[in-house]
Specification:
With about 170 residues, the protein is mostly beta strands. It has one helix spanning about 80-85, and strands at about 1-5, 10-15, 20-25, 25, 30-35, 40-45, 45-55, 60-65, 70-80, 100, 105-110, 120, 125-130, 135-140, 145-150, 155, 160-165.
């Protein structure tokens, strides 16, 4: 079971049944066709919808979806998230970040922030190239950039502090 929240206003209970999705204890009859590249066509109650997943954060189970030119922010909570929430151990409290360290050796390809910038959880802070792949390093929490310990083109070692936050 999932609890799905749309635009922080509408809440739905969603479960997968033998005959498809169950939405608030009612069968949800729809026809969904993947058009590729995060685009979908949906038929529901004789209405046609064009949908596109604009952003997806699997770790937080949050999505930004465009349906017929309207943008919706969708958050999903599974039974474990709901249980943690009941126990008062949910992760809805914002994490304050102290620093970002290099997860592996590599080369700093791009720096997306400056000293004094405010970052939120999931914001791309810098790009690290390792093993011929670009890796976007994202902020694990909210904070203000205090110092940047590296420069564009610098080689870094694993666990080296790259950016510090206030």
């Amino acid at each position: 079971m999932y609890k799905v929240i749309i635009n922080e206003q509408q809440t739905y209970d969603v479960t997968a049944g033998k005959e498809g999705l169950i939405l608030n204890n009612q069968p949800f009859a729809w026809d969904l066709v993947a058009l590729g590249n995060n685009h979908f066509h949906v038929l529901h109650n004789n209405h046609s919808y064009n949908a596109e997943i604009i952003e997806a954060n699997a770790a937080d189970k949050t999505f930004k979806i465009k349906v017929n030119q309207h943008i919706y922010r969708v958050a999903a909570k599974d039974r474990f998230d709901l249980l943690l929430e009941q126990m008062g151990m949910n992760s809805t409290t914002k994490n304050k970040v102290n620093n970002i360290k290099a997860p592996m050796p590599g080369l700093i390809w791009d720096i997306k922030v400056q000293v004094g910038d405010t970052v939120k959880t999931g914001d791309v802070v810098l790009v690290l190239v390792a093993m011929k792949m670009e890796n976007a390093l994202k902020s694990p929490g909210d904070g203000v950039v205090k110092s940047i310990k590296i420069g564009k083109g610098d080689s870094v070692e694993k666990n080296q502090v790259l950016v510090e936050f206030e």
